[in-house]
Amino acid sequence: MPDYLNQEIKFLSGVGPKRAELLKKELGIYTFEDLLYYFPFKYIDRSKFYKISELNPNFPYIQIKGKISGFEMMGGGNKKRLVAFFSDGTGSIELIWFKGLSYIQKSLMQNTEYIVFGKPGYFNGKYNIIHPEVETSLKNQNTISAKLQAHYNTTEKLKKSFLHSKAISKLINNLLIVLKGKIQETLPAYMIREYKLLSLDEALFNIHFPQNNDLLRKATYRLKFEELFYIQLNILQKRTIRIHKWNGYVFSKVGKYLNQFYDENLPFKLTGAQKRVLKEIRKDIGSGKQMNRLLQGDVGSGKTLVALMSMLIALDNGFQACIMAPTEILANQHLETVNDFLERMPINVGLLTGSTKNSVRKELHENLQNGELQILIGTHALIEDTVQFKNLGLVIIDEQHRFGVAQRAKLWKKNEQPPHILVMTATPIPRTLAMTIYGDLDVSVIDELPPGRKPIQTIHLYDSKRLRMFGFLKEQIEKGRQIYIVYPLIKESEKMDYKDLEDGYESISRAFPPPKYSVSVVHGQMKAEEKDAAMELFVKGKTHIMVATTVIEVGVNVPNASVMVIESTERFGLSQLHQLRGRVGRGASQSYCVLMTGFKLSNEARKRIDIMTKTNDGFEIAETDLKLRGHGDIEGTQQSGLAFDLKIANLGRDGQLIQYVRDIADGILDNDSDLKKTENQMLANQLKKISKKKVDFSVIS
Ligand code: ADP
Ligand code: MG
Description:
Blueprint: H1 3-6, H2 16-27, H3 32-36, E1 42-45, E2 62-74, E3 81-87, E4 92-97, H4 101-107, E5 114-118, E6 120-123, E7 126-130, E8 133-136, E9 148-151, H5 156-160, H6 165-179, H7 189-194, H8 200-208, H9 213-245, H10 256-265, H11 272-285, E10 292-297, H12 303-316, E11 320-324, H13 328-341, E12 349-352, H14 358-369, E13 375-378, E14 392-398, H15 405-412, E15 420-425, H16 431-437, E16 442-446, E17 457-462, H17 466-478, E18 482-486, H18 495-511, E19 519-522, H19 528-539, E20 545-548, E21 561-566, H20 574-581, E22 592-597, H21 603-614, H22 618-629, H23 637-640, H24 655-671, H25 681-693
Parallel strand pairs: 4-7, 10-15, 10-16, 11-13, 11-14, 12-13, 14-15, 17-22, 18-20, 18-21, 19-20, 21-22
Antiparallel strand pairs: 1-9, 2-3, 2-5, 3-4, 5-8, 6-7
Helix pairs in contact: 8-9, 9-24, 10-12, 11-12, 16-24, 21-22
Bound molecules: adenosine-5'-diphosphate (ADP) and magnesium ion.
Residues 268-271, 274, 297, 299-305, 426, 450, 557 line the site of adenosine-5'-diphosphate.
């Protein structure tokens, strides 16, 4: 890689040691290359000039050309401001500053032609622009001109050192002058030709200084293409290596356990989706390659049953299996479910969690090692080094995002050969996103709910309708149902959230007084045992209402609960709302989700509530979520570290392109799996460079 790109940023003209320090701290820009790849977040068309006479109050950013006819200092205290009267011959407008007044007044002259840029406002019958950009209409010789002006994100600290967007643009201008003719291509010539891409040189130039809209579009496409392509190439190559390196246990037969279960214990017909997914799993575990599969399915879609049947196949082939759950409550629930399903079958199932007593633990360890214990269910306790299996063949990981990469890797060490792995998640993830954040995993989807479920009805109510809501809850309790009321919680320690819940709990206790009603409460400030005890009361049907923060979000199963009330809905993200709603609708009766909000709602909040009331389809919701927020906040992407590393592509919005470049990468590896061919030399080099940089794109490595 050419050295000048690696040069420290302080050597760029216009930077110097002090600014270099700031750029490092604030934006993570250390080298010329980092700055070169610091892309604008928006562009504003500077090719058009508006006339003041044609303005109307709804205009976005505008550009006008004219002269200042006079200044006036107005107001006092923090209302003190400088007003410049600006006219272009068709009308006049006020330019207003609240900061840097005397400096600005000194630097601007009357009767000189200026270009003024900003968002016009309308007040007291007059147009104004607050804190406009003002520049002379004479062009500076050393400035690259562009039709579209790039805007860069900056920070308060940077602005204080005059590193605002325009200054950053100026630095990049200097950089591009230095780098002229020196930027080397990073994609092979045949790809540039075949996929009609701009050269890297041209793309980088136009991303910062677009000569026109068409070139900006092409530059963006080229850079996104490259970014996503290398991610997919990296993932697919690692996957190829893994498949070649690791053999998997072969579960060749279906035997007495699965057959007996199927014939005698299975209380219902499998859904079509469950059958399909089981087929996919059986193909994997019979192939001689290690399975690494993500099973996605909405809450209540019947993933647990699929997991159980997969485990029975492992047992049929003489192996042990385990389920790892993120919390003790969930581990307990899995144990109950599994025990119910396996009633009267001669299978040994054990439970291991943080609170398993030492004496019990000792026996468990023994039975695991001698193979007597066939299925182990537990929490993180499962991956402790002291836990040794005789022959662990299959690991089910439930609600995977709660487990880190390192923790999962530990499971591998329990055998000389890695067990098959099935990761289950109820957070629906759009396909293209899954392909990237769980890159190395194959994906199965259960996209069908068991029959007979009544879709949950979702209603939006303003806080002023609270009494009506209470009335409705009483009716439901009359009918023997139970109710969740959930309050938002951003951080477990946030006092304010706790207060919301406390106040809420009080008013609910008043509205639902004992002895007729009983209410339990769970929040982040309680000790684990207290939490579990309160939860247990609700699970067992001993309390009518469970008031809680989002601690109940994951996995809890109380089929008799038929109403989920969500308070301050506007403060929840979409995927969280969907998760919460999934706590109800698990029994046979009609279930409801009530979204409570104040009157004032942002547009985004309104969109979230709209989609929630319109559909129960988790994938549709996930897609919308991704589009509303981009990928940065989506669960899983943060953990993967990938989202923050992308410079230009967006995993949410660039779904089609992801699929496209993945197919291309696939095709290349098909013909040249080690990237040894001459024409692919550049690909191999780039991959090396990328993997040195930091992120390991595969989740299990
Ligand atoms: P998930 O883990 O995907 O949220 P579960 O496995 O807990 O869903 O299943 C939810 C409920 O549906 C359970 O009570 C389960 O017994 C039941 N169930 C699973 N599969 C079927 C099916 N094919 N037909 C009817 N009920 C089913
Ligand atoms: Mg589940």
